[in-house]
Amino acid sequence: EEGQARLLAATVVVVGCGATGSVLAGLLARAGVGRLRIIDRDFVELTNLQRQVLFTEADSARALPKAVAAANALRSANSEITVEPIVADVGPGNVKSFLADATVVLDGTDNFTTRYLLNDACIALRKAWVYTGVIASFGMTATFVPEGAPADLPGRRSATGCLRCLLGDMPAPGSTPSCDTAGVIGPAVSLISAVSAAEATKLIVGRGD
Fold first, then answer.
1. CA 15/CA 25 separation, integer angstroms
2. Which of 184, 200, 177, 199 is nearest to 53 (CA)?
3. Helix axes 2-9, 186-205, angle to 10 degrees
4. Which of 74, 86, 192, 198 has the maximal Cβ count within 10 Å?
5. Is 104 within 8 Å of 91 (Cβ atoms)?
6. Rounded-to-integer distance, Cα 38 and Cα 107, Å
7. Is 19 strand, coil or helix?
8. Can you say how many angstroms the Cα of residue 18 is from the centroid of all Cα atoms in its chain?
9. Where would I find the beta strands (DSSP E) of the chain?
10. DSSP 3-state of 188
């Protein structure tokens, strides 16, 4: 009950609601996170449905914004939580305002430019965040806790390195494979995103490393 109450009191921001983001948002909504903010600039397309589990052919036919379609699906799954869809680009001018009240930030993006922006904003705001990346049939996830992350986050860990510590300088555009060039299979998305969702849940409820 204590852990569930902490989930209900949490605000989780999911940046990007494509393949990984839709799995992350779905798992956390069903876990009972009280407020989910979903930010994505794109619209649902038929080719998304192979891996983006919140969307349907009807969403594609209506060309709904992904954030809006995701919010509709999540409200149907759990009517007792608040889902806030934001159809927008995340950039230097707005990223901090989007993340300011977050308990935990989740990376559902598909590009390093936005990921490094999230990394730097979370360090500045002292927000814990979880990186998720999947390509082809493999992926990785990493949990980052900046120095000085709020003590009221019960599952916080000792401060960690950041994304720049892990990966170095941001890769040059076009130097790494993408879903457009290498593809991605749905099971890899679900597997890696499930680990990331578990990491976020552990941070919120304080249930071990």
1. 10
2. 184
3. 110
4. 74
5. no
6. 11
7. helix
8. 10
9. 11-15, 35-39, 82-86, 104-107, 129-135, 138-144
10. helix
Residue 101 dihedral angles phi and psi, to the nearest 5°: -105, 15
CA angle 121, 199, 186 (to 5 degrees): 95
Q: What are the backbone dihedrals phi and psi of residue 36, each rounded to the nearest 5 degrees, phi first?
A: -115, 125
Query: What's the CA gap between 182 and 179, in Å, rounded?
Result: 5
Distances (CA, A) of 125 to 10, 54, 58, 118: 17, 30, 38, 10
**Rounded Cα–Cα distance for residues 156 and 73 (Å):** 30
Indicate the length of the chain as a whole number.
Answer: 209
- Could you give the angle at the alpha carbon of 50 between the alpha carbons of 142 and 110, nearest 5°? 35
Per-residue tens of pLDDT for the chain, all 209 residues: 999 999 999 999 999 999 999 999 999 999 999 999 999 999 999 999 999 999 999 999 999 999 999 999 999 999 999 999 999 999 999 999 999 999 999 999 999 999 999 999 999 999 999 999 999 999 999 999 998 776 556 655 678 899 999 999 988 877 777 777 788 999 999 999 999 999 999 999 987 66
Query: How far apart are the C-alpha atoms of 77 and 23, rounded to whole Å?
Result: 13
pTM above 0.90, yes or no: yes
pLDDT at position 143 = 94
The pLDDT assigned to 5 comes to 96
> Please, how many CA atoms are within 13 Å of residue 52, restricted to the half-sphere of its CB?
27
